[in-house]
Each structure stands twice: as C-alpha cells, then as structure tokens.
Design brief:
Layout (H helix, E strand, L loop, with lengths): L8 E3 L1 H11 L9 H8 L2 E2 L9 H7 L9 H7 L12 E5 L6 E5 L3 H10 L13 H17 L12 E5 L2 E3 H11 L4 E6 L2 E5 L7 H4 L6 H16 L6 H7 L3 E6 L7 E4 L3 H9 L10 E3 L10 H8 L21 E5 L2 E11 L4 E9 L6 H10 L3 E2 L1
Length: 380
Amino acid sequence: MSPRVPPALKLTPLAARRFLLRVHGLDAPFTGIASALAHLGFVQIDPINICGRMHDLILRNRVANYREGGLMRHLHGENDPLPPAARVAFEHHLPHNNVLAAFPLDAWPHLLAAMRTRPKRTGAWAGKLTPRERELAPRILAGIAAQGPLSSDQIDDPRRGRKIWGATTLAKATLQKLFFHGRVLIAKRVGIRRLYDLPERVLPASVLAQPEPSARDTARWLALLKLRQRRIALLKRDELKAIEDLVQPLAIAGADCPVLHCLREDAPLLVAEIENRESKIETPSVHLLAPLDPLIYDRRVTAALWNFDYVWEAYTPLHKRVRGHYALPVLSGAELVGHIEPRADRIAGKLSVLSRRVRRGHTVGPALQAFTQWLGLRSR
C-alpha cells in the first residue's frame, strides 16, 4: 500500500454504524436541501411512486422539515422554470452507470466526457442516434429554440420508437438521447413528465463555460463522489489509486469483507465513536429508509456492518420476491431491524401496509404514523 495511506483504523461494526448515522445526517438533519446535496454529492432520482419517490424518501430522513416534492422544487422552481442565474443544481446521469441524479453545479464539468462519448457508442437508450432519430433531432431542437421548454408529447411526430425504459415514441426516444448527449437539459417537471430546454437556458453561462477536466481528474472526482455518497465504502483498486491521499482505511472487527475506506476528513468522527463505546441509545429513533438509501446501497457493506441483507425488489419477478415490491428497511437506533412495505392510495387518501417484518422489541408504529402524515394520507 502507498505510504501516503495511513494504517487501517480498527473499529467495531457498532462504532461504524454510529459514525454513519452522524455523517449521513440521520441523527441531526441538514438545515436545507442544498447542504444535504453538497454533502452527499448527488441524490438518486427515480420516478416510481408507491409510497413517495426515491429521492424524496432519501431526503426526508436527512433534511429538516422536508416536504414531498422538495428536491424537484429545489432543482426547477415552484411553477415556471428557474432562470439560469437562479439554478443551484440540475438533473443528469452519472457517467459510469447512467443513474439519473440531482447534482450541485460543480459536478457539471465532470459529466462532459460521458456526454461527448455517448453519441459515438451503440445503445438504444443513451447511444448514437438512429437514422430516424437523426432526422428528427434538428426539428426538435428548432422547436425548443423557438417555443421554449417542450416535452415529448408536444413534438408533432406520430411515429413509434423502440420501447426502452418507457420511451415508446420516436420523439421521446430522441429527446432522451439528446439529454444523455447534453444537447438539451431538463428545465422543469410536471409530475414525472420532463420538459426539456437548451442548456444555455437552464444552466448559468459560467457553469457551461467550464472546460472539460482531464480523464484523471474526473476519475478522482468519481471515486471521491462514491465516498461522499456512502461515507464508508469498498473501493476498487483504480478508485483507491485515484484518491489514496484522501482516504482512511478501516478494519472492521469480525466483518467478512476486505478493507473498507472512509474520507480522511471523516476519521475524527470515527475515532470519537470508537472512544464512545460505553454510551447507549436510550430511546432509539426509527427511520423508514428508501430502498436505495446511500446508507445501505452497497449490499456487501450493509451485510458486514449491519448484519442485514436487503435487495430492492421493484424489478424482481413477482414469484421471486421475498420482501415485496417496494419494501422500506427499518432503522431503529443503530440497528437495521426489518422492513415494512407501505402502499399509498392517493385517490382514497390512505396508506396501507402490505407486509411487515420487524425484529421483536422494536416498534414502527410512531414512525409509520409520521410517514403517513408526511404523505398527507391517513392509515388504513
């Protein structure tokens, strides 16, 4: 190992878990969305709304007084799209796995390389335009330039497109690729419906003028982003090499996993938790976590630190599901103690619980009631 990397810090799973509660804002929420987003680096966006959308469920547990739909209002404004000068964050895809996320503005230059290379690659979702899409693209861009933000259903073209992740019309598939390529950006949303505009009418000119960083700088940014998002992570060899001057190795007692890492700047918090081994959580708070919450995103790390095995089963065939379509893990103090599967009936104004499996001695009643009220519903 490089001499720039300090010796591994030895700690128990409990100390690691308590550290994670603190550094994820779960025991002391952030005061606003901007500070949470800056701390995490990004928030994953997902359109599925069974009992609230993924990004709202992630931020609900981390931002004081967070309201449903708050991230989209932060990104795009309340009614009319925000002018470029007022934008503080934007939507785009992570360059290495195409996950849609909300980013602070400083992420923009590190996404440019992926935008530049996607049009040269094959791929029905994000790759180069097909001949029909290439013919339609100039008309779409001209329409947006003349009329302002447009959604795919406002493009006058009846042709069907290949069905890839919901893109069923040629206009929708073309707009989706233009977004991946950075030629249009999401200016506003109405529900999950995207309205696209030209980049210069979405982001500040100073942001768009930033040069593309070197491949080495972007690799460093991506590795750092992973640690900012998860705070304790398994790093691949190339990720460790990119940020070895910024990391602290961790050796977890009794954990069946390789050496983990945290940010070196976070190490004092970890040391404080190691030294705080005698304290007890008298009345543990209970959180209903998002299925893709950063706290549990890496299944192997979650198993090692929390002794908890969890898989999001939204895309798992029905006959293979164990927990349910949209089960929320239950965090009680510094323990993951089970899951609950709520479903919101917005028309009836009620929240029902389809399944519940929680370890004996832990109650989710008050947390579920608070969750129901947050959704503006009543319990069934």
